[in-house]
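Annex B, item 7. Sequence and C-alpha cells for protein A, then protein B.
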Amino acid sequence: MAVLRSVKGGAPDRVDGFELAYVTRDGEQARVALAEAWSLRLDRAEPVRRFASYRGHRHLPGRWWSATDQRHVGYESWLERDHLAAFDFDPEVVAIASQPFWLFWTSEAGKTRSHAPDYFLRRGAGSRECATRAGYGAGSCSR
C-alpha cells in the first residue's frame, strides 16, 4: 500500500552532486545546483511533468481546486488527492505545489538518479517541506 509521508529535517549537510530542475514562468526548464535552490519560490512552480490519463489507467489523476492557493493543483491518484485535501485544510500550510521540480544525483554505483517529489509545501512560519509516497528513499528537502 502506498503511503504519502512528509520528509522533514534541516538542510542536508552535503548538497554537492545534487541538481534541481524546475519550470520557469516562461515555460522553460532551468537547472541549478541544489545549494543555489533554497531561495527559489518552488511553491508557485508549475509541475515538471504532465498528469497522464488514458483508457484503462488504474489510477485516477486529476486536479484539486486548492482554497489555500486559489488555483488547481494536480494529483496522480486518489491517495495523492486525499493527502492534497488534508494539506489544503491544514491551517499551517500557506502554499502547495505539485511535482514542482526534479532532483538529480549520481548514485554510489555511478548511475544517474532522479526524483520528482509529489508535493512541495510552504508553511506559515516560512518552513518548506516535500511530501512524497513512501518507498522512494528521498532525502530531506526541508528548510
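Protein B:
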Amino acid sequence: MVEACACAVTRGPPGDPSQPMSRHLARDWWERTEKAAVVAQVPGRGRHSLRQTFATELKGANLKDLCALGGWTDHNTILKCYEQVDPEAMRVALERRGTLRGVWRVSGMPQLTSGII
C-alpha cells in the first residue's frame, strides 16, 4: 500500500497536476482513507512516512528535481527529515572504496590516508 500511496501524495490536486498536493489535502485524504479502511490511527504512520519512503526511494535523483516532485521548497528538508540511511548503499560505498584503494596501489598513485576511514 505504501508504494501506491507514495506516488499519490506527491501528485497535485485534481485540475492542476503540475502543482504539489497541499499538506492539508494530503492530511484530509489520509484521514478519510484510514476511516474508510477502518484502520486505527498509529503514531508514526501517516503522510510523512509516505513522503519519507518517496524521498528514500529517489535518493539518487537530483535534489532540485526531487524537491519539485515532492513539493519541498528547500532540499535541506529532504536531507534532514525525509531521506533515510540505506545500509545497502553504505555497504556498496565501502566495497567501492576498497576497490578504489586497490586500484591506487596497483597504478602507483599515492594512497590517501588522512581523513579517510
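Comment on protein B: The chain has a mean pLDDT of 74.
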